[in-house]
Amino acid sequence: xxxxxxxxxxxxxxxxxxxxxxxxxxxxxxxxxxxxxxxxxxxxxxxxxxxxxxxxxxxxxxxxxxxxxxxxxxxxxxxxxxxxxxxxxxxxxxxxxxxxxxxxxxxxxxxxxxxxxxxxxxxxxxxxxxxxxxxxxxxxxxxxxxxxxxxxxxxxxxxxxxxxxxxxxxxxxxxxxxxxxxxxxxxxx
Length: 189
Known about the structure:
Elements: E1 10-17, E2 20-28, H1 33-40, E3 59-62, E4 65-68, E5 81-83, H2 91-100, H3 109-122, H4 128-134, H5 145-158, H6 175-178
Parallel strand pairs: 1-5
Antiparallel strand pairs: 1-2, 3-4, 3-5
Protein name: 2Fe-2S ferredoxin-type domain-containing protein
Region (Disordered): 160-189
Domain 2Fe-2S ferredoxin-type: 11-88
């Protein structure tokens, strides 16, 4: 005869998300921040991608540090400042992603906005190689890095960017990635 299933331990907690306090009366002790945001608080972003912290779809910031929400235990986010892609602090990057066509289907766009904003806070004038490295944790199957580089440039410009003339020049080999007019698809057939 089998033994009865043990009760899974639950806790009540309050999360500070996008500047607001959200009480969550019953959370399984092993729930991820992503699960609580989406299933208990009905947030549509961050997205639920791989569930293993490898795709970047669930990027949020926890105390201004990018984090895969699927890997952060919800209980570890208590008394921390959690910012989702819907936070107004990511608006410039969201607009830049859309304007550059950097997330055509929209699935990776919220994670890209978080990654781009975090990058520009750490490095206000990144070159193409720094952009590729910083955004390498976001998987997108329907865009290319050139669109991402353009999105970073647009977000930088929207947020005031570096002072004129103080930025490093992009790698000449990547000029077609930075300048949309120089992309192969912009050429006349």
